[in-house]
Amino acid sequence: MTSEGWGTPPVEPISQHYIVCGGNALAHRLVLELVEHYEVPVVVLVADRTRDHAPRIERLAGVAAVVEYPNITEEALRAVSVDTARGLALVEGSDQENIHAALSAQGHNPDIRIVFRMFNQRLGENIERLLRNGAALSGSATAAPAFAAAALGRPNSVEIEGRYLHIAFDDAITPDRLCVVADQIDRQDFSKIRLLPEQEGDSAQFVRLATEFGDDGPVRPGGVRRGPVPEPRVGADADPGPGAPDGTPDAEEPAGGTAALQAMRMEPREPTNWARRVRWRVLDTMRFFTSARMRLVLLTALAAVLMAFAVLWYLSRDFGWTVYISLLDLAGAAQPDQQADIVAGTGTGGAWQRVAQVVITLCGITFAPVATAIVVEVLGSGRRGLPRNPSAGTRDHVIVVGLGNVGTRVAAQLHEMGVPVVCMERDPQARGIASARALGIPVVLGDGPFEEQLHRARLKHARALVAVSGDDATNLEAALEARHGNAEVRVVVRLFDDNFAGHFYKTLDNAASRSVSYLAAPAFAAALMGSEVRGTLSVFRHVLLIAELTVEDGSGLIGLNRHDLEDPGGVRVIAVRFAHSNQLHWGFADRTRRLAPGDRIVVAATRSGLARLNTVLVEEG
After folding, report:
1. DSSP notation for 196-252
2. Which residues pair with 572 in a beta bridge?
3. pLDDT at 272
């Protein structure tokens, strides 16, 4: 081992394995996905075994080896046997570093599947074209919609062929739902939630009756069966329900809430009307007049100008001429009456008109330096690269704490929806500062106490706070401080630890928790196996994947029908596109039709369910 790297590479030669490069939270979740759901050998390349999530990764069962190198060099790639690997995931480092590592890995193994993290999605698409078998994903772009939707208190959506799929809960579920995605939802214990539980179809009750009675079944008048009562199902020892004839209990309803997958023709938008936007823009300009003394002087001058304007209009009876002469007077360009004109009686309007013009001219002298100062401030702050501060009129906004990759995406998405946004960041060199300045989003910079920073961010008037820094403790501190300063504000917190998140939900109302790595890791794992994940939907701390699979020649999906795909659990087929057809069939009812080469299916799946389908593709495809 040279001085470039150290650690213990695989002792025995290894092949057909997957390599994960990184020691961050996303790498940790991705390794868990691969070893638990896909059950494939994984080799992990980390920069430092003692930092971040590397120690926890090393303790995971199923990890073949953990190799330590400060950089992804040619020697590091050889140490993890990239020549014989089936896939490589680059989930840490800058965009430039990941591009360099991906191209180097392809040079060693042209057939290897490469999935790399890229913040610049446009650049990632261009790099994909240079790779024989590669995919560029953005963890922040995958997770940001869930954070933005949680801040607004509505579900995020995934677009498929002009329809927007989203999760609806309990009373919001409509009869045209695609499928039930969760039941037994207990907001105090999310471990009880069942994702994609077994559900009976609409005709299940009739099928059960036909099976029970048969063609010659004894049925007495009134539709109630003669003879002994059939064996009750589990849980039927409770008191019979009011609608159960002859003591036969009603079908047991699952405890807790229910969630269903629904489709909409239009994406749900934040209802921000034009009057509200105009009001916010007008109030936003008040940031230039924060001094009470300045506001008093300007308001007095404005009142004097309006009074003088009214005098001129009364004397001339010509509104257009009054506007014209008033603007000239404000600019200091009015033509005064000469003494000879006054003596000759050829003046423009008498003494009252001259007094009004003098008042307007003096007030114009007051307005001119203020306007100049505003222009200089706007242009000067832009050239210095400094974002603007929130105005005193900022109302009904969302505060985003942390302008890293995720915070930048969340702020940009909320801004695109027309929602007022104020960002908070302690590091003046953070990636998102320039993006916020380009979008005109106010940013509170500084390393002061959260109480002071939140006060500057106008917490009292905020609708929600989204804490998405890279540290769980910092995010929790921001949320608790925000709730202390405004008991009505909604808080959305980025948390990695599930137990931590469980306590968070139990302690705070009107709150939500999301994990970037938990949302993004299944998409990276599926891409590593060759599937296309179109998006992720959140069911509290659980994730549902919307993926599109293509049935190719030699694929293990050939010959399977909906029963084969769904019965093992964790998968629901929500749409089918047949070969040589451009139409997507939603809720395709024929469960016996077998897939043929060229077909495409859209599925809603749990992590384990999608892993099962991907395993079929990898092993038999």
Report:
1. S-----TTHHHHHHHHHH-TT--B-TTS-B-SSPPPP-TTTTSPPPTT-GGGPPPPP
2. 604
3. 57
Strands 600-605 vs 542-550: parallel, antiparallel or unpaired = antiparallel
Nearest-5° angle of CA 337, CA 340, CA 343? 100
d(CA 273, CA 555): 50
Task: Please name the residues in contact with 74: beta carbons below 8 A apart, sequence gap of 6 or more.
Answer: 104
Q: What is the pLDDT of residue 283?
A: 61
Q: Which residues contact 383 (CB under 8 A, 6 or more apart)?
A: none
Q: How far is 48 from 57, CA to CA, in rounded Å?
A: 12
The reported pLDDT for the residue numbered 234 is 36
Distance, in Å, from the CA atom of 428 to the CA atom of 575, rounded to the nearest integer, reads 47
Nearest Cα neighbor of 88 from 37, 36, 80, 96 is 80
Q: What pLDDT was estimated at residue 148?
A: 92
Instruction: Give SS3 for 142.
Output: helix
Angle between helices 498-507 and 472-485 (to 10 degrees): 10
The confidence score (pLDDT) of residue 487 equals: 93
> Would you list the DSSP string of 484-526?
HH-TT-EEEEE---HHHHHHHHHH-SSEEEE-HHHHHHHHHHH
Contact (Cβ atoms closer than 8 angstroms) between residue 400 and residue 453: no
| Tokens describing residue 165 | 């799929």
Query: What's the longest Cα–Cα distance across the chain?
Result: 123
Residue 501 has, within 13 A of its CA and on its CB side, a CA count of: 20
Tell me the whole-structure pTM to 2 decimals: 0.71
Left (φ > 0), alpha (ψ -120 to 50) or beta: where does 153 sit? Answer: left
- pLDDT number for residue 348: 59
Q: Which helix (H) or strand (E) holds 169?
A: strand 163-169
How far from 404 is each of 18, 148, 428, 473, 581, CA to CA, in Å?
28, 15, 11, 16, 43
Q: Is 108 exposed, middle or buried (0-12, 13-18, 19+ CB in 10 A)?
A: middle
pLDDT tens profile 253-276? 445 789 999 988 776 565 556 666
Per-residue confidence (pLDDT) for residue 2, from 0 to 100 = 38
Buried b (16+ CB within 10 A) or exposed e, 116-133: bbbbeeeebeebbeebee
Give dist(CA 38, CA 530) in Å, integer.
13
Please report where in the chains the tokens 């139990």 appear, as a residue.
506
- Provide the token pair at 431: 């990636």
Low-confidence ranges of the chain (pLDDT < 50): 1-7, 9-11, 202-204, 206-207, 219-254, 346-347, 620-621
Separation CA 336–CA 152 (nearest Å) = 59
C-alpha closest to that of 420 among 378, 483, 463: 463
